[in-house]
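FIELD: query
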Amino acid sequence: MRNIVGSLLLTCIPLLADFYPPTMESSIASANQKSLTLSRPLPVSGMSGAIVHRFAPTQSAITGYLRYEGGRNGVLVDNEPITHEELPSVKQKAHAGDKVIGGYLYNTILILAPDADSYARIVESAEKNWIHPDLYAMFLSREGDQVPTKENLQQFANEYQIGLVYIVQKNRAVLYDPISRKIVAQKPASKLPAKGQFPFFMRLDKIESGWFSKDAKGEYYQLAESIR
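FIELD: result
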């Protein structure tokens, strides 16, 4: 019975073939301080891209990140590159010829949804590496943060190698890029709970305060709308 109900509820969040932006490679044609020109456009304006510099024929590393602005334009964003212990720890500038991976890690997605049913429908709707919000809840508890913010979502994405955050908002679902801090896709969502209370779904019982605690009070949709 539960499987039948789950299958019926799957239609509550419409599926669009192009909802998830694809990962695509480009390169830097020219760089002028923070402004970059790419050799070819990326799929979606606002998406982030990892900049990969080759230090030697067999050694390359992510040295920075950009936000795609449309056309062939990009701009550097402040985001600490992944640590590479075997390479020099220097602040590498973006150079012409550096590879760009647009939509880096876009297949790994954290979900923020108003209830367990919505969460289950999203997971069933596409083959992705879905990240359960319990992991994010533990991260917030460790950091001492009460609610999701652009800042702690970016920090969480860096630490846990997350590419996107799937956020169910009032009447729509959005894909939020925590590195560029931009929404890169959206689609309608219907038959969601009228009031999304948090915490919506927890397998943990050790969160003492904040959005995911047992004593949390507030309205899910109001906070979800503020992350944009």
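FIELD: remark
The first helix runs from residue 2 to 9.
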